[in-house]
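Hey, I'm writing a tutorial for new members on how sequence and structure tokens pair up, and I'd like a real worked example in the thread rather than a made-up one. If someone can provide the structure for the chain below, I'll link this post from the tutorial.
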Amino acid sequence: MGSAAPRRSAPGWRALLAAAAENPLTHAKLSGLYPATGRLDSWTADTIRPFVDDAVELFGAARLMYGGDWPVSVLAGGYDRVWDALSTVVAGLAPAGRDAILGGTATAFYRLPIGRSRAG
């Protein structure tokens, strides 16, 4: 018994994502990966995994960033659930890729200062 083939996202969505990823200046947020119909909170980490896997394959971690999707994430089960699920999905990436998606890409893209507090 061989392992099952990896699940893939919807072909149309993947094609559009691939077209966007062709431009090396294009970055993307991993956000809003909830069902388009039915209950917004009916998703799991496994249902978003094919979309994240495709995005990582097409863009690379250096052009992807976590997006909290507030306030819609509240309707989709809450911010903590969104963060936990995406963290679970990217946990298998190399540390540099995981760190890029969960903060590094956004820091670089938005040119955020590192290690400085606004209060201090």
